[in-house]
Amino acid sequence: MPQENENVFIAESQSLDVDEQKKNDILSVIESCNDLQDFIKKLKEENLIWYFIGPLRKDENITGQINLKWEKEFQKFEQSIDATHKELKSSLPGQNFLAYSTKDNDFKIRFENEEKPIEISNILRASSEGKVYNISLGKDSQITATKKGSERHYDFTGSSSCEVTINWQAKDSEGNSIDCSMTVKLDSGGIQSVIGEPKFGGITSSEEVLKLVGQNKEVFINGKTLYQAFTGMSRSVDDQQVPAEEIFTKDPHISP
Fold this sequence. Notes:
Radius of gyration: 21 Å
Order of helices and strands: EHHHHEEHEEEEEEHEEHE
Distance between the termini: 38 Å
Number of domains: 2
Low-confidence stretches: 234-245, 252-256
Mean pLDDT: 85
């Protein structure tokens, strides 16, 4: 039986448009902070952190001001950024992303203007238990991915929603292998609805469909098994359509 796969797909561009105002805002934060840790915290609060980690990280004025105040600490932070990117790159070949970490085993990731799925399950399979991956979906929304034994947990937080495509393989009542796949709308409350036409190998009986969903033992959404999350929807099972593999699609109305 092939492995289950979860792929994050971010529909809207995550490009960071840099202007002089963003640069000046970061310089003002540098001036107002007493240490590097406070500086990073303030950048997060003002939604400037990805501009600093990305296009403005090597800006001479910014790095010059930082080095005047926290040169040694900043050197260590830069080394941490490089190490984090290198670690994730091996699991995400061909992907463009920014990443950083401010505490052990906790990683922040932002993918850049991708038009192809991001195989987040590859990160978890290569990861050791206890590591946390926070994938930015824009503004206050993110998917948090963690590994617990053979389980892969995906928790959505924020005010928006996203689409998740889930792919897995199961067996029908006669023991035949069935490729299963469904796309669902996910928000902080869990699965809200099924989008498009799911695939259960031609099986349409709600009872049999639920048995196939229940065989996915690896994927958890907002703390619930896929079966619990799926049956918890307000929409009746008879109206559901199900698709195999997970793809997170950022709400098209969210800005970077």
